[in-house]
Amino acid sequence: MNKKKMIRLTALVGVATATGVVAEANQTHAATTTTTETTNQTTNASVESTQAAVDAAQSAFDTAQTSVDNAQANVTSASNNVTSASATLSSAIANKEAATSENIASATSAVSSQAVVVASASQAVSEQAGVVSAAASVQASAQAEATSASASLSSSSANVASAASALSAAEAALTSDQSTAANNLSAAESAASSASAAVSSGQAAVDNAQAAVASAQAIVDAVAEVQSSDVINMSVAYITALKNYLANPSSANAAALQEVAKGADYVKELQQKFKSDASLDVVVDPSDPTVQEALSVYAVNLINHLRNQYGLTTAFGASANANVAAIDFVKKYYDDEDWNIFGTTGSDGKGHNKNGLDAYADQLNTSIAEDAGSGLTTWVNGKATMATTTLHNLLYAVYSDIATMLFDDGGTNNWSHAQSIFEDGTILGTDGFNNVYLGVAFDKYGYAHYELYNATEGNHLGNNAYSLDVQTAAQALLTNAQASLASAKASLQRMTTNLMVAKAAVVAAQNQLAALENSSANDLVAVTKARTQLASAETSYQTALATYKQKEEALKKAGDNLAAAQASLEAAQATLATAKAKLAELEETVANLTNADQLLAAAQATYEQAVANLTTATGNLGAAQVDLAKAESQLALAEDTAEQAKVRAAIAAQVDQQLNGSTANDRQSAGQDATSLKTNGRALTATVATASAAKQKQGANQGRLPQTGNDDQEASTMALVGLGMLGMATGLYGYKKRKLTK
């Protein structure tokens, strides 16, 4: 039900009404025949009566609102019916216009043609149903054969199980003790085999450890002598020429340096000074940490010896962290990227991977310089390989590379390798090399890379520093290898003892088994018979299994055929349903065209009736709205009357309260001076003063306020009290609002 709000502002109580109430109160007081209670009862009855009228008007308003809502719903429904009837009428008119003899004949012909299609589809459904029936029959037969084959297979399986059980029983009778002995023998043989394998493994470990000790011993014997003898000594003239060139790299100074250095001939002379010791011809892995330590310490000692001759006091360092960084860098930016620094001929290489150097410097947050040499590719005795290289090869590669950097570095390189060795705090003009640590690594092509890092507390490249005493490092390698050999020998001794115990257990188990072999001839016959029966049962089972698989395959094929036939039947049924639906649609079209006049007449009648119903509903809505407006007006009037009754009752109650609080002496002394009536309070003083002024204009007061008896002063007093109460009533009720919500 729709909700409406009606808001009214109650009018101010009229002066005449208030005056009447005051006059009534004055008359009642003067005559003294009616009590205050009687006045209050009268006004209260008026309030109750007017409130009852408000309730009745409210009920009438609610009823009228409901009637309006219902009428509005009827109008909406009638309007929708008109819209629907209009659409139907338009369709009927269009149908009537299309109902020509040509269209009817064409539609009838279409019905006949579609009937033929339906008949053909129906025939196809019938035929496919026959195919499905035949396929179902074949599937049922295949199912029966598969069930029979499954039963035969189950029976054969049971026979195999029975024969196996019989064999187990016969074998259990045969080998109750013999089986235990055989198991003991098998376990003993297995233990002996494991012990033998362990001994072989232990012997291999001992052999490897002994080889490691021999290799370490060779390094210890040779590396100290190599370190002390494999030094590169520069002439005073070379040092002077190099210093001049580095201070002023002019063409003249470059030529002078080249002349003093003697070029490639002197490099060969230095290479021939490398001590070739047979004890160094041990195959090693260039990435092995111990080998890495030996190589980097060897290279750093060579370089520091040169720097000392040059007059520098700051030395390069070597550390495990710098070596790890070098190996990681070469793998990532040379091996993984197939970056061949020198190429296959020495002149077709890619050169330094500068982008890789920049990226790795950013990664480590430090400065990096790289020197590279031919490494394992330029031996006097031929090219070495990473897989078969020896400690001699690696040490010689480092020695030869550093020598080449010093004395055969002219041309486009402008002695940059020598410059990287002899600068202090800077390399190739780049600052930030105040604490240089060297890492050595070989790429997959055999070329050597010497990475110069500036080590800081932040990048930790100087951590795990190596002692530059090669003899100490080599001796540590030997000590570790000897400890490993001792451990391997002790382990081999334990394994050998275990093997002897295991072999004795095998002999004991073999003797126990031989003692039992002659005591079970009958059991052996039973076992042989059971084995024969088991073999026969297994053969029958395999035959039954093959038959079962064949029948299962036939059943699957029959099921597939049935499913395909059913799918074809469903497709034919769907085609038939579509054809029937099309036929029904065409038949409906013929019926509509044939009965166009009747359909149009019916649609016209329905439309006219809907319009008439809408007209009636609209009129009913108007009447209901008129009734609602009347009910609303009556409700507003009843509420105004009730509000005025409440005001009258309030005024009467307050006047009586004032009158009942006065005494006879108070009324007789009304003309006295206002200052002598202090006991009556502030309100009474004001009233008396006003009454004295009013008495001087008695004629005017008589025209507006009723008089009671001959007591003019009292009448004036009562009138002013009434006016005072009127002002209070106006203040209490004059601007009160009431909301009526439904």
Number of strands: 8
Number of helices: 19
Major sheet size, sense and barrel closure: 4 strands, mixed
Work out the helicity level: over 70%
Query: Structural class, from secondary structure content?
Result: mainly alpha
| Cα Rg | 64 Å
Low-confidence stretches: 1-26, 673-742
In what order do the strands lie side by side in the largest sheet? 2-6-7-3
* Coarse morphology: extended
N-to-C span: 9 Å
Strand content: 5-15%
Order of helices and strands: EHHHHHHHHEHHEHHEEEEHHHHHHHE
Average pLDDT reading: 78
Describe the protein's architecture and organization.
By secondary structure, this protein is mainly α. It has helices at residues 15-31, 36-98, 101-174, 176-229, 236-247, 251-261, 263-273, 289-310, 320-335, 354-364, 391-407, 416-422, 470-516, 521-594, 596-660, 664-668, 681-695, 698-704, 712-733; strands at residues 5-9, 317-318, 368-373, 425-427, 430-433, 436-442, 448-454, 737-741. The strands form three sheets. Strands 2-6-7-3 form a four-stranded mixed sheet, with helices on both faces. Strands 1-8 form a two-stranded antiparallel sheet. A two-stranded antiparallel sheet has the order 4-5. Strand 6 and strand 7 (448-454) form a beta hairpin. The longest helix has 74 residues, at 101-174. The chain is extended, with a radius of gyration of 64 Å. The relative contact order is 0.17.
